[in-house]
Amino acid sequence: ANDPAEVFGHLIEDMAKARDEVVRALEELGSTAERRDNPIWTIKGEWAIDHKVVEMMGSARREVVIISIHNDYLRRYARNVAAASEGRKVTVVMLEGSGDFTGLLGNAKLLNIGRGKLSPPEPFMSTAMEDAERSMDYDVEMVMVCDREVSVILSKERNGHRAIISSGTVVDYFINRMIDLTIMEARECDGPC
Shortest CA distance to 142 belongs to which of 189, 73, 77, 190? Predict the structure, then answer.
């Protein structure tokens, strides 16, 4: 008869090898699908959203810009923002509570803007955003752009959260334009704003 501990050890090794193969295959599939076939995609689920946002920050080569409308996500990603700011230009625009983040975001440039100054860059978008805000079906919580190429909009929708990721589309044009206009209207925070 075989030693049960030895048999169990072999089973664990086989499971670990199988797990590693599945993870490798899924990573290959995911990177191929993201980059080639899907310029816009959505992600639901806290773990998946967190994983993608952290991955985007880490893979940015030059710049990360964040507009934080509600600070829950920014609080969650503060360490990642600080880490990203070590090797890249990072700008964070906040609507509220910027004093709470003094010193937590590393070398990030911290800006503050009043709620009334945050508006979409194109007039036709204002009506759509006002309608969504009134219905409370959608609540944009954070917008992030990496290297002016890839953007993510994090929103609360009915009973869950969603990340909408765009790469190389006209959506990125509008998001980059909104970010530029927002930064122009914002003021820099030396201490609490």
Answer: 73
Q: Which residues pair with 90 in a beta bridge?
A: 64
Alpha helices in 62-122 (DSSP H): 72-76, 78-84
Closest listed residue to residue 52, CA positions, set 168, 144, 159: 144
Residues 6+ apart with CB under 8 A from 52: 43, 152, 163, 165
How far is C-alpha 49 from the geometric centre of its chain's CA atoms? 7
Average per-residue pLDDT in the chain?
A: 82
Exposure class string for 104-136: b at 16+ Cβ within 10 A, else e: ebeebbbbbbeeeebbbbeeeeeeeeeeeeeee
Whole-number Å distance between alpha carbons of 152 and 49: 10
Q: Which two tokens stand for residue 40?
A: 């816009």
For residue 9, the model assigns a pLDDT of 86
pLDDT at residue 82, as a whole number: 94
Return left, alpha or beta for 151; rule: phi > 0 is left, psi -120 to 50 is alpha, else beta. Answer: beta
How is residue 183 written in tokens? 């930064």
175 CB-side CA count, 13 A: 26
Rg (alpha carbons) of the chain, rounded to whole number:
20
pTM here is 0.72
CA distance 64 to 91: 6
